[in-house]
Amino acid sequence: MSNRPETPTLDRVHLPSDLKALSDAELHRVADELRQETISAVSETGGHLGAGLGVVELTVAIHSVFDTPRDRLIWDVSHQCYPHKILTGRRDRIRTLRQKDGLSGFTKRSESPYDPFGAAHSSTSISAALGFAVARDLGGAPEPSLGDAIAVIGDGAMSAGMAYEAMNNAGHLGKRLFVILNDNEMSIAPPVGAMSSYLTRLYTEGPFQELKAVAKGAVGFLPEPFQEGARRAKEMLKGMAVGGTLFEELGFSYIGPIDGHDLDQLLPVLRTVKARSTGPVLIHVITKKGKGYAPAEDAADKGHGVSTFDMVTGKQKKAVSNAPSYTKVFAQALMDEAERDSKVCAVTAAMPDGTGLNLFAERFPRRCFDVGIAEQHGVTFSAALAAGGMKPFCAMYSTFLQRGYDQVVHDVAIQRLPVRFAIDRAGLVGADGATHAGSFDIAFLANLPGFVVMAAADEAELKHMVATAVAHDDGPIAFRFPRGEGVGVEMPERGEVLEIGKGRIVREGKGVAILSFGTRLKEVQDAADALAARGITPTVADARFAKPLDRDLILKLAEDHSALITIEEGAVGGFGSHVAQLLAEEGVFDRGLAYRSMVLPDTFIDQASPAAMYAEAKMNASDIEAKVLEVMGVAQLDTKRA
Ligand SMILES: Cc1ncc(C[n+]2csc(CCOP(=O)(O)OP(=O)(O)O)c2C)c(N)n1
Ligand SMILES: CC(=O)[C@@H](O)[C@H](O)COP(=O)(O)O
Ligand SMILES: [Mg+2]
């Protein structure tokens, strides 16, 4: 397979409107070439491969039947949108995916009119499609004017409550709306839960084969698709607990299941629903994640997320690691603790591999719970596990915990329940960009009464924080750590229980103190080394806790130095804001302390490498060095104290 495939038919397609001039036979060729082009592009960029390969035919069919961008097409999560981007005028930039100044790996309103609604967190597509449908019917008509609304949502995303909230509302409103359920029996990991089993039953039981046969032949059910589809679905469900498909109960016409890789099924079904439908319709499409590329199809994760790879062998080019990843350190530390304490248990919301809990699940299957994409439920479930006497570790990415925030406040914090939040992907994450940045958790947790909020400065600190969290039974506690590998520090045999609300001095200096919260500590140390060459020797401290603050340490640093700088991998409103509040309340500013806080800027930073993103945020070692020089300039260093 050459790295740049021959794509004579795809080359004729610059925009979706070009598809309309093609015969169905030519559309088949477009789909085949689009698949090769997607594989080729991702082999150079890395990214989300399997999901896009699974919707190649669906993408061609939707764009050839519907009239995008007037018809609003909304991809749920949108990690499957690369073929869509290739067909919608972005093929010339597709090899810049997920890179600085390149195309986003997700749909993005600012990138193209063919991306009417951005996404990257799951299960928002039906709500968005319904909003467009209602805006259309109310006469809201920005350019291009509003046509149909189509949501494509995966079976994994259908585990989240939000999808049902939207369907409940859509069924009630009865608006013309299309939901395409892309069922590939995969989330990132194999999907879990009763809903997943339900979907499987819809097509694995006998009647599906019958329906499939009807669909394959003369597509005989099409003249009256809704009635026939509904009738068959009901037949299918005879003997099951419910009387019709769940979707019908919610007010949708149900069509399917149909083979999502067969354009001869997809095209007539979509043409028919477009011509005839008046209300909400759910089209249940069966696909294969990774379809058409053996290394993806054969992989356990179906090629969900890959680094750059060799197209012929599928072998991914992974960077050599110098230290264990924070995720692995967390998982290992938690397993060690669980070995000693049978109350330790763990909760993930559809991210077992990403959070390292796949390892925990292998060792302690009864104490590990994958709740599906259901962060809200995951948090409340953890709260009740804690109320029931267990020691739950609710392991979530910072960005996804946002979805469970009310539950964090209402179910955990107010009830002062000892849920342990292991917050992975804290700070800027790189190629996934702004939607996945873990920017806000310090701010949204440290303002909650009774919460303990920690950030690990390195992997040894992370191990201590896991031990601290196990021991802390008096209310909620959170610890955050970033994506990627640690700094390579020596690891303690066993995590040590830290004193709550106490930081540590890392190096003694004078004049300026830098108080770090989290893994910027390494950059701070590098900056301090560089400053030493100029004869400037800042004190460096690791706060460990944003809540409760180490008041003694902070006030002592303020007392002993002329200037204080705080730094954290989070947005304004977090650690630095709490320090500033303390300093103000204690009248320290009145006594002339120069204070600066280094936080993420008040913008959403687009995808790039984490280092480039932190450079944009002005938070790398050179920026810290510059900040020290700046603050020394304005501090008019008190020589007595210096
Ligand atoms: C709220 C939220 N939680 C978790 C994720 C991480 N995530 C991204 S894709 C994915 C699996 C989605 O599965 P599915 O919807 O079936 O799509 P597929 O990849 O199978 O096409 C998960 C868990 C997310 N994007 N959003
Ligand atoms: C689309 C999505 O939300 C996930 O696939 C995410 O990109 C995974 O991120 P990590 O690579 O950091 O696990
Ligand atoms: Mg899926």
UniProtKB/TrEMBL annotation:
Pathway(s) this gene product operates in, as recorded in its UniProt entry: Metabolic intermediate biosynthesis; 1-deoxy-D-xylulose 5-phosphate biosynthesis; 1-deoxy-D-xylulose 5-phosphate from D-glyceraldehyde 3-phosphate and pyruvate: step 1/1
InterPro entries attached to this UniProt entry: Dxylulose-5-P_synthase, THDP-binding, Transketo_C/PFOR_II, Transketolase-like_Pyr-bd, Transketolase_BS, Transketolase_C, Transketolase_CS
Top enzyme class: transferase
Pfam families, alphabetized: DXP_synthase_N, Transket_pyr, Transketolase_C
Catalysis: reaction(s): D-glyceraldehyde 3-phosphate + pyruvate + H(+) = 1-deoxy-D-xylulose 5-phosphate + CO2
Molecular function in Gene Ontology: 1-deoxy-D-xylulose-5-phosphate synthase activity
Residue span, Transketolase-like pyrimidine-binding domain: 324-489
Keywords: Isoprene biosynthesis, Magnesium, Metal-binding, Thiamine biosynthesis, Thiamine pyrophosphate, Transferase
SMART domains: Transket_pyr
Cofactor annotation: Mg(2+); thiamine diphosphate
Amino acids binding Mg(2+): D155, N184
Bound cofactor: record note: Binds 1 Mg(2+) ion per subunit. Binds 1 thiamine pyrophosphate per subunit.
Function: Catalyzes the acyloin condensation reaction between C atoms 2 and 3 of pyruvate and glyceraldehyde 3-phosphate to yield 1-deoxy-D-xylulose-5-phosphate (DXP).
NCBIfam families on file: dxs, PRK05444.2-2
Name of the protein in its database record: 1-deoxy-D-xylulose-5-phosphate synthase
Organism: Psychromarinibacter halotolerans
